[in-house]
Amino acid sequence: VTVTLAPIADGGGGERSISTVAFRTERDAAGRLRVFADLPYRERLRRDGAISGLRFDDHPFQPALPRLAVQFANTTAETITVNEIQFAVAKAEPDRAALPVMREKPHDYRRIKTVNEGWGGFENPRIRVDLWGLPAQENSPGWTRRWRGGVILADPCAAPRRPIAVEPFTVAGVFDDGGDATFALDDRVPDAYDGAPFVCAVGKLTYADAGVEMALAFRTRVSNHRPRVEVAGIALGSFDLFLDSDRAGYTAVVPVLVEVPPGETGTADVTVFTDRTSSFTLTHAVRTASGAILPGETFDLEIFRPRRDPRAYMSTADLDEMTAD
């Protein structure tokens, strides 16, 4: 019996938003498999040192969970029954970097609300505003642009209309009870933009992460009219396997029941979940009803989990029990 892994991964082909998570797979020269989260927003921040405001209510990203198809080919003359999939965790390494996101929302009247969707520190945040302007008109050629091939970035402040350069000024962020930083700009918005629903602010965001000073170029829309109350619903997702983000040296188990007749191949899909963005080194195997352990392969897996996940997750077993009731 042979055991293999076939990740059900979204390669991110075609057009997609810069804030959408996909999964990619690749093998190195030695054939080792790597499954990793592809979030263009994070890549742009780290590679270019730049962020643009995102339009969202409570959750800036639409994360996804990796799905792994564990396959077992029965080359024997007898039917086998697989009743367990095992994942030995050799490494678990959480990503402790901050991931700041500026929110573009009418509710944030003349202020910039910045959330940290990473798992690192976001201390002493400050913004320096160098330029004001008006955003490109929605659905105009300047509203969106491409970043890294088919990735679409809504960037209406990339080339502001009616720009006004000002003497650069700095505003310190004030944290609320939820840990979000707000930069108040009430008396800073130029009178020339009165009546405009949004204005553009362009400058630099600085903050400390684990004692290291970080700096990012930013541009974002700022609401210039009074807010309205909005409420968002909560979605529910499920997973088959939970991995601790910072614990290794154990074997996680997924119960299954798959019968594989002689000469055929069985498959069990496993959706993996963790409590924060982390990288893992795993070795998978299956256990048959006779107690035999059939080895698979060692592979690397990264899961992206923002601090503010738009979904509440439950194990598949718990979700099935809840829906049955």
What would you say this structure looks like, in words?
With 325 residues, the chain is mostly beta strands. The chain is built from two helices and 25 strands. The strands form six sheets. It has a six-stranded mixed sheet with strand order 3-4-24-23-8-21. Strands 5-18-17-11-14 form a five-stranded mixed sheet. A five-stranded mixed sheet has the order 6-9-10-16-15, with no helix packed on it.
What is the topology?
Blueprint: E1 2-8, E2 16-17, E3 22-27, E4 33-38, H1 40-48, E5 50-52, E6 54-55, E7 67-73, E8 80-94, E9 100-104, E10 111-116, E11 123-134, E12 144-147, E13 151-154, E14 161-172, E15 174-175, E16 181-184, E17 198-209, E18 212-223, E19 235-239, E20 241-243, E21 250-260, E22 265-274, E23 278-288, E24 293-303, E25 311-315, H2 316-324
Parallel strand pairs: 2-13, 4-24, 5-18, 6-9, 19-25, 20-22
Antiparallel strand pairs: 1-7, 3-4, 7-22, 8-21, 8-23, 9-10, 10-16, 11-14, 11-17, 12-13, 15-16, 17-18, 23-24
Ends: how far apart? 39 Å
Q: What shape does the CA trace take?
A: elongated
Query: Low-confidence spans: pLDDT under 50, at least 5 residues?
Result: none
- Any idea what the radius of gyration is? 24 Å
Order of SSEs, N→C?
Answer: EEEEHEEEEEEEEEEEEEEEEEEEEEH
Oligomer: single chain
Q: Mean of the pLDDT scores?
A: 90
Strand order of the largest sheet: 3-4-24-23-8-21
* Helical segment count: 2
Structural class: mainly beta
Strand content: over 45%
Proportion in helices? under 10%
Number of strands: 25
Largest sheet: 6 strands, mixed
